Amino acid sequence: MRQWLRPGLGIKRWMLTLLLAMVAMGVAITFLVVEIYQGGWLPGWLYALSLQWFPRPVRAILLFIVAIPLLWYSLRELKRNFFQPLQPIQQQALSLVTRNRKLSNGPRIVAIGGGTGLSTLLRGLKKYTANITAIVTVADDGGSSGRLRSDYGMLPPGDLRNCLAALADDESLITQLFQYRFGGEGDIGGHSFGNLFLTAMTGVTGSFDRALVESGRVLAIQGQVLPASLENLTLCAEYRPKNGGRVIRVRGESAIPTTDGKIQRVFLEPHNVAAFPSAIQAILSADVVVAGPGSLFTSIIPNLLVPDITAALLASSALRVLVVNTATQPGETDQYAVADHVAAVEKHTQYGIFPLVLANDNQSGAMRPNLEWVATQPSPNGFREVILADLADDARPWRHSSEKLAREIMNLYQRANQQSQTPIPLQGVAQIHSN
């Protein structure tokens, strides 16, 4: 009971409200009993049981003598027959209430991206707050998502499905089912159950955005997952061949990483796609906005190419952080340093859209073939702050650690809150901080 009455759970206030309601009801019953007593409505045998021939103080003492043993006995039996068998469940319920109360008071965080990187970030953030919004690219046209997009004319569900699963309970059987991928060569071979579920839910609800909401309820996710846009769009890229020939153009997200050459720019067709309104609202009300990690040109930048999203970022008062990958990605960011990632984002958007840059400085693990560490030097110049920290996963250093990344973002948020009373302007030269 002492644990249930701990501050911050919101239990005591409603127990007090319940007590006041019971007192009011008791007073009402008292008025009714007095009216019956004084009105002489009691038959003879009930009048004898009412003990009215005793003075009122004596009657009160007698009632207390009867009530106290009954109260003690009933509480003892309730504990023995009800509460004691449910003690393990009570502990789980208490833990769940405490956790949900803490998470519901967490900062409002918007995570922008797609693919594996965004899912990694979400798995870490959900331990700190339930107020998470994932804004996911809808430019995917490969694999299961591409097939469903082509066959049913819907938005690609793959990245959105991964984010839904990342925000759900990782140990839940329904989450594992959502991520299950069918094998074989049949019609459903290569499809994940979650993609098919979202396709079916779109047909049932009549809209893809409603399907995401209902799927989130099924998985009981911490937060919400939103598409960057509801329009059918195509991601295109312009390449400079390695031999220095003419710039070539490639259409389709899945074709971009396999094209030989250096990416000059990526763009959407059509150009002026409308953003999903809920995504704009989430950015404008956020405390923290994080872009990345993930594929720079096919997961992060496509979201920023939606004009309304860029405008909302520039208008937002949130702490805006760009997370740089730990390793380069073949076909997209070969030989890229931190400064190259920042330059690519600002080339496609606007200078200073992310004042904070978070990069990994732990480059001690064994890297996979064809991958390289993203160099932290030279650092980007201008009105930015570069935060260096150990962000790499110990087992797979080419990826971020969910726990390390989320913890560092929360540290940045807490530091920003502490400095909000006395803002410190950033200097013209990038500041490097090692944690």
Spell out the key features of this protein.
435 residues; alpha/beta; Rossmann fold; 3 domains; eight-stranded parallel β-sheet; 15 helices; disordered C terminus
Helical stretch tally: 15
The tally of domains stands at: 3
DSSP strand content: 5-15%
Any idea what the radius of gyration is?
Answer: 30 Å
Oligomer: single chain
Q: What distance lies between the first and last C-alpha atoms, to the nearest angstrom?
A: 42 Å
Give the overall form: elongated
Largest sheet: 8 strands, parallel
Q: Assign a percent range to the helix content.
A: 40-55%
Structural category: alpha/beta
Stretches where pLDDT is under 50 for at least 5 consecutive residues are 423-435
CATH fold descriptor of the largest domain: Rossmann fold
- Summarize model confidence as the mean pLDDT: 86
CATH uppermost class of the largest domain: Alpha Beta
**How many beta-strand elements?**
11
